[in-house]
Protein backbone atom coordinates (compact mmCIF):
# COMPACT_ATOMS: atom_id res chain seq x y z
CA UNK A 1 0.00 0.00 0.00
CA UNK A 2 1.48 3.33 -1.08
CA UNK A 3 0.09 5.16 1.95
CA UNK A 4 2.12 2.90 4.24
CA UNK A 5 5.21 3.60 2.14
CA UNK A 6 4.59 7.34 2.54
CA UNK A 7 4.31 6.91 6.31
CA UNK A 8 7.55 4.93 6.35
CA UNK A 9 9.29 7.66 4.31
CA UNK A 10 8.04 10.34 6.72
CA UNK A 11 9.15 8.25 9.71
CA UNK A 12 12.57 7.64 8.16
CA UNK A 13 13.00 11.40 7.80
CA UNK A 14 11.55 12.15 11.27
CA UNK A 15 11.59 9.03 13.51
CA UNK A 16 9.35 10.66 16.15
CA UNK A 17 6.62 11.11 13.52
CA UNK A 18 5.66 7.45 14.03
CA UNK A 19 4.26 8.20 17.47
CA UNK A 20 2.79 11.57 16.42
CA UNK A 21 0.70 10.03 13.61
CA UNK A 22 -0.27 6.93 15.58
CA UNK A 23 1.29 4.52 13.05
CA UNK A 24 0.37 0.91 13.69
CA UNK A 25 0.31 -2.36 11.79
CA UNK A 26 -2.94 -3.32 13.50
CA UNK A 27 -6.41 -2.53 12.25
CA UNK A 28 -7.42 0.81 13.77
CA UNK A 29 -10.60 1.47 11.79
CA UNK A 30 -13.60 2.81 13.68
CA UNK A 31 -17.19 2.61 12.54
CA UNK A 32 -17.40 6.40 12.13
CA UNK A 33 -14.66 6.49 9.47
CA UNK A 34 -16.15 6.83 5.95
CA UNK A 35 -15.42 3.68 3.94
CA UNK A 36 -13.34 5.39 1.22
CA UNK A 37 -10.90 6.60 3.92
CA UNK A 38 -10.83 3.40 5.98
CA UNK A 39 -7.59 2.12 4.45
CA UNK A 40 -5.76 5.25 5.70
CA UNK A 41 -7.08 4.92 9.22
CA UNK A 42 -6.38 1.19 9.28
CA UNK A 43 -2.67 1.99 9.64
CA UNK A 44 -2.59 5.46 11.24
CA UNK A 45 -4.76 7.44 13.62
CA UNK A 46 -3.69 10.82 12.26
CA UNK A 47 -2.11 13.81 13.97
CA UNK A 48 -4.05 15.76 16.56
CA UNK A 49 -4.44 19.47 15.90
CA UNK A 50 -3.02 20.39 19.32
CA UNK A 51 0.20 18.35 19.03
CA UNK A 52 2.87 19.59 21.42
CA UNK A 53 5.78 19.31 18.94
CA UNK A 54 4.56 21.08 15.81
CA UNK A 55 7.58 19.88 13.81
CA UNK A 56 5.87 16.46 13.84
CA UNK A 57 2.45 17.68 12.71
CA UNK A 58 2.66 17.49 8.91
CA UNK A 59 2.63 14.48 6.62
CA UNK A 60 3.11 16.93 3.73
CA UNK A 61 4.33 20.50 4.26
CA UNK A 62 1.57 22.55 5.86
CA UNK A 63 -0.94 19.69 6.12
CA UNK A 64 -1.60 17.03 8.72
CA UNK A 65 -3.43 13.77 8.39
CA UNK A 66 -6.65 14.60 10.23
CA UNK A 67 -6.80 12.58 13.45
CA UNK A 68 -9.58 10.00 13.42
CA UNK A 69 -11.13 11.55 16.56
CA UNK A 70 -11.19 14.97 14.87
CA UNK A 71 -12.40 13.75 11.47
CA UNK A 72 -16.11 14.25 12.13
CA UNK A 73 -15.55 17.86 13.27
CA UNK A 74 -13.28 18.62 10.31
CA UNK A 75 -15.86 17.13 7.94
CA UNK A 76 -18.55 19.42 9.38
CA UNK A 77 -16.22 22.41 9.05
CA UNK A 78 -15.45 21.39 5.46
CA UNK A 79 -19.16 20.95 4.60
CA UNK A 80 -19.96 24.38 6.03
CA UNK A 81 -17.18 26.11 4.09
CA UNK A 82 -17.54 24.08 0.89
CA UNK A 83 -21.19 23.01 0.73
CA UNK A 84 -20.97 22.77 -3.07
CA UNK A 85 -18.48 19.88 -2.62
CA UNK A 86 -20.90 17.57 -0.86
CA UNK A 87 -19.32 14.38 -2.25
CA UNK A 88 -15.83 15.33 -1.01
CA UNK A 89 -14.25 13.73 2.05
CA UNK A 90 -11.38 15.74 3.58
CA UNK A 91 -8.43 13.75 4.93
CA UNK A 92 -5.59 16.31 5.16
CA UNK A 93 -6.03 19.75 6.74
CA UNK A 94 -4.00 22.83 7.54
CA UNK A 95 -4.64 25.13 10.49
CA UNK A 96 -7.19 27.30 8.70
CA UNK A 97 -9.65 26.02 6.10
CA UNK A 98 -7.57 24.40 3.38
CA UNK A 99 -7.86 20.69 2.70
CA UNK A 100 -6.97 17.76 0.53
CA UNK A 101 -10.15 15.83 -0.18
CA UNK A 102 -11.32 12.70 -1.93
CA UNK A 103 -14.14 13.14 -4.44
CA UNK A 104 -16.16 10.06 -3.54
CA UNK A 105 -18.02 10.15 -6.86
CA UNK A 106 -14.94 9.43 -8.99
CA UNK A 107 -12.05 8.76 -6.58
CA UNK A 108 -9.99 11.80 -7.59
CA UNK A 109 -8.10 13.99 -5.13
CA UNK A 110 -8.45 17.78 -4.81
CA UNK A 111 -6.69 20.58 -3.01
CA UNK A 112 -9.38 22.89 -1.68
CA UNK A 113 -8.70 26.42 -0.46
CA UNK A 114 -10.99 29.42 0.03
CA UNK A 115 -8.74 31.75 -1.96
CA UNK A 116 -8.10 29.35 -4.87
CA UNK A 117 -11.17 27.13 -5.02
CA UNK A 118 -10.62 23.48 -5.78
CA UNK A 119 -7.95 21.97 -8.01
CA UNK A 120 -7.71 18.36 -9.03
CA UNK A 121 -4.24 17.09 -8.15
CA UNK A 122 -4.55 13.34 -8.78
CA UNK A 123 -6.96 11.04 -10.58
CA UNK A 124 -6.97 8.53 -7.72
CA UNK A 125 -5.92 8.08 -4.12
CA UNK A 126 -3.24 5.68 -5.34
CA UNK A 127 -1.81 8.34 -7.69
CA UNK A 128 -1.90 10.87 -4.85
CA UNK A 129 0.10 8.69 -2.46
CA UNK A 130 2.51 7.75 -5.27
CA UNK A 131 3.10 11.46 -5.85
CA UNK A 132 3.75 12.11 -2.15
CA UNK A 133 6.05 9.09 -1.96
CA UNK A 134 8.08 10.43 -4.89
CA UNK A 135 8.27 13.82 -3.16
CA UNK A 136 9.94 12.12 -0.19
CA UNK A 137 12.15 9.85 -2.31
CA UNK A 138 13.31 12.54 -4.74
CA UNK A 139 14.11 15.18 -2.12
CA UNK A 140 11.19 17.48 -2.86
CA UNK A 141 10.38 17.29 0.85
CA UNK A 142 13.16 18.10 3.29
CA UNK A 143 13.60 19.33 6.84
CA UNK A 144 14.38 23.02 7.25
CA UNK A 145 16.96 24.33 9.72
CA UNK A 146 14.43 24.16 12.56
CA UNK A 147 13.34 20.58 11.78
CA UNK A 148 10.04 21.41 10.06
CA UNK A 149 8.95 19.68 6.87
CA UNK A 150 9.47 21.97 3.89
CA UNK A 151 9.51 21.57 0.10
CA UNK A 152 11.08 22.73 -3.14
CA UNK A 153 8.27 24.48 -5.04
CA UNK A 154 9.74 24.04 -8.54
CA UNK A 155 10.67 20.41 -8.03
CA UNK A 156 7.21 19.72 -6.58
CA UNK A 157 5.57 20.97 -9.78
CA UNK A 158 7.92 18.95 -11.99
CA UNK A 159 7.45 15.67 -10.10
CA UNK A 160 3.71 16.25 -9.63
CA UNK A 161 3.21 16.89 -13.35
CA UNK A 162 5.23 13.84 -14.31
CA UNK A 163 3.00 11.55 -12.22
CA UNK A 164 -0.28 13.42 -12.84
CA UNK A 165 0.04 14.79 -16.40
CA UNK A 166 -3.71 15.44 -16.81
CA UNK A 167 -3.98 17.56 -13.63
CA UNK A 168 -3.35 21.22 -14.43
CA UNK A 169 -2.64 22.02 -10.75
CA UNK A 170 0.99 20.95 -11.17
CA UNK A 171 1.70 23.28 -14.08
CA UNK A 172 -0.20 26.39 -12.95
Short synopsis of the structure:
This protein is an alpha+beta fold and 172 residues long. Helix content is 33%, strand content 17%.
- Largest pleated sheet: 5 strands, antiparallel
- Cα(first) to Cα(last) distance is 29 Å
Evaluate the radius of gyration.
Answer: 15 Å
| CATH class term | Alpha Beta
What structural class is derived from the secondary structure elements? alpha+beta
Q: Quick one: overall form? A: globular
Count of individual domains:
1
Number of helices: 6
Task: Report the mean per-residue pLDDT as an integer.
Answer: 91
- Report the CATH architecture: 3-Layer(aba) Sandwich
According to CATH, what is the topology? SMI1/KNR4-like
Count of DSSP strands: 7
- As residue ranges, the low-confidence spans are none
Element pattern in H and E: HHHEHEEEEHEEH
Percent helix, as a range, is 25-40%
Strand content: 15-25%
Amino acid sequence: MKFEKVLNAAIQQRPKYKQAVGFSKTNLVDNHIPEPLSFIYSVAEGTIKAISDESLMDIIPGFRLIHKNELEGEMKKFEKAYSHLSVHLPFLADNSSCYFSLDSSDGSIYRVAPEYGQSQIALSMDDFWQTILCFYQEGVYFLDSEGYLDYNFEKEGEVGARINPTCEYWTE
